[in-house]
Amino acid sequence: MLKIVKYVIRDIIRSRIIIAYALILLAASFGLFNLGGDVSKGLIGMLSLVLLVVPLVCLIFGTIHFYNSYEFIELLASQPLKRGTILMGEYLGVALALCGALLLGAGLPVLLYAATATGFTLLAVGLALTLIFVAIAFLGAVATRDKARGVGMAMLVWFYFALLHGGLMLLILFAFEDYPLEKPTMAMIALNPIDLGRVVVLLQMDVSALMGYTGALMKDLLGTTTGIASAAGILTLWLLIPLALACWIFRKKDL
Amino acid sequence: MLVSRHLTKSFGRLRALDDVGVSMERGQSVLLIGPNGSGKTTFIKCVLGLVIPDKGELTLDGTCLLDNPTLRRNIGYMPQIGRFPDHLKVGQIIEMMREIRRGTHIRSDEDLIDAFEIGKLAHKTARTLSGGMRQKLSACLAFLFDPEILILDEPTAGLDPLAAEILKEKVRAERAKNKLILLTSHILSDLDEITSDVLYLIDGRIRFYRPIAELFEEHGDPKLGRVIAKIMRETADA
User: Fold this and answer.
1) Residues B181-215: pLDDT tens digits?
2) Which domain holds residue B202?
3) Does B213 touch chain A (CB under 8 A)?
4) Nearest residue in chain A measured CA to CA from B141
5) Contact B48 A80 (CB under 8 A)
6) Which of A142, A232, B30, B147 falls 20 to 30 Å from A127 in CA-CA distance?
7) A203 — pLDDT class (breaks 50, 70, 90)
């Protein structure tokens, strides 16, 4: 498996798209830290950037990579390799390459301007989202044969998690504001990895009370440490379930 | 050696393979023919474990192929369309396959790498290769680990005449070493000289499976293309 990972990463790095991704992140991060004036404003800007851009890039890049590697995956599958090994090799190659780009593009500025617990939490959330959304991208690509449909689905997934989910949540909160909604709200947050990531960073920022309903709620209900730990646990599920499903489908798939 | 029993596969409503039972032995060179969509590629892909049949079984020397991916070390496959990671160099692709296959084979066979002068392409990235060069690289990889079974899907399509001759010569040499060769082709006249048996599929069913010499004798014609055309016409009339 590691042999496959190695060559997948080599191929991706040479494609230069990933380098462009790292450089754009780098430029945007430096911009945010320099324009905002103070570090915490910069970090809030970085948070929005990471929460929006990382899932989008991972979904699109992961999906397109899978479809473009189709014939090569077929060749690998005709070798004495298990299907699971091939899929995990491809997955880890893509996910690790994107993690590397994120560490370069966002990690370096954080290290220079905001080497605090919050800064590192932000990076950890970025890495977790990378792993999760590449896994979701692979699940979509494995389940759909048609490339156009697969890429379209990836964009819909992003649209839902990045924009729609929050709107729906607000709608529900307003509609049922007369009822106690703490627990349902928590459940709704858990259903969106991007929201979870946001909550983790905001809890760490210690400005959660100022950052609206969900942050205050989470802090109130769980406290910082338990809150972060349970969010991390749910994020792990968000990684493992799509990955396991993708492997399960791929094992029985006709190539 | 390679035996299929009641092999059946449907894609939606289409029956790609319908109760296919054949037995192939070492030293045979079987040419799979049939109209488009007759199940040739599906049959090959079943043997390679790329397509999982709905029913039936496939065995290699008595062991089930479907449950044992490691048995595929005995099979070399040259696909119809070879595509490799765009930005890897030819040399890296060969090196990668060697790494993946480390410990799964007894000896390497680099005859084709030399004959096709792949060394000269080693620094080209896969993206810049022409169709014919890709075919050559695919062929090299299929033969590289000296497998007992060679599966070549449209091997001469896209190759220049010289390269096609080199490949055919290689196939002949491997068959002489008592290996099983499985070929498909649309251009019938192209491969009849390296074929020992013809497996004719229509709509996923075996129309016939006979030695090529017998076909020639029966129809009094030494050209496979004409013989097949005649049989197809007879089938259409009947």
Assistant:
1) 999 887 776 787 888 899 988 888 888 888 888 88
2) 2-237
3) no
4) A75
5) no
6) A142
7) confident
pTM of this structure: 0.90
Residues 45-74 of B with CB under 8 A from A: 45, 48-52, 69-73
pLDDT at B140: 92
Are the C-beta atoms of residues B13 and B2 closer than 8 Å to each other? no
Length of chain A measured in residues: 255
Find chain B residues with C-beta within 8 A of A11's C-beta. 85-88
Parse chain A into domains and list their residue ranges.
2-252
ipTM associated with this complex: 0.86
The reply to whether residue A77 touches residue B48, judged by beta carbons under 8 angstroms, is yes
Q: Which of A15, A71, A254 lies at the smallest CB-CB distance from B81?
A: A71
Residues of chain A in contact with residue B99, where contact means CB-CB under 8 angstroms, are 3
Q: What is the pLDDT of residues A161-184, one digit of tens each?
A: 998 998 898 898 888 888 887 778
Calpha distance A104→A24 (Å, rounded): 10
Backbone angles phi, psi at A73, to 5 degrees: -60, -40
CATH number of the domain to which B53 belongs: 3.40.50.300
Q: Measured over all CA atoms, what is the biggest interatomic distance in chain A, rounded to whole angstroms?
A: 61
> Whole-angstrom Cα distance, residue B221 to residue B188?
14
Residue A47 and residue B47: Cα distance in Å, rounded? Answer: 51
Which backbone phi and psi does B89 adopt, to 5 degrees?
-85, 155
Quote the CA–CA distance of A203 and B214 in Å, as a whole number.
81
Q: Total domain count for chain B?
A: 1
**Residue B150 clears pLDDT 90, i.e. is over it:** yes
Whole-angstrom distance, CA of residue A131 vs CA of residue A102: 11
B86 interfacial to chain A (CB closer than 8 Å): yes
Q: Do A71 and B72 touch (CB under 8 A)?
A: no
Are the beta carbons of A15 and B87 separated by less than 8 Å?
yes
Q: Which among B48, B96, B104 has the least Cβ separation from residue A78?
A: B48
Please work out, in degrees rounded to the nearest 5, the angle formed at the alpha carbon of residue A249 by the alpha carbons of B127 and B55.
105
In a 3-state reduction of DSSP, which class is residue A35? helix
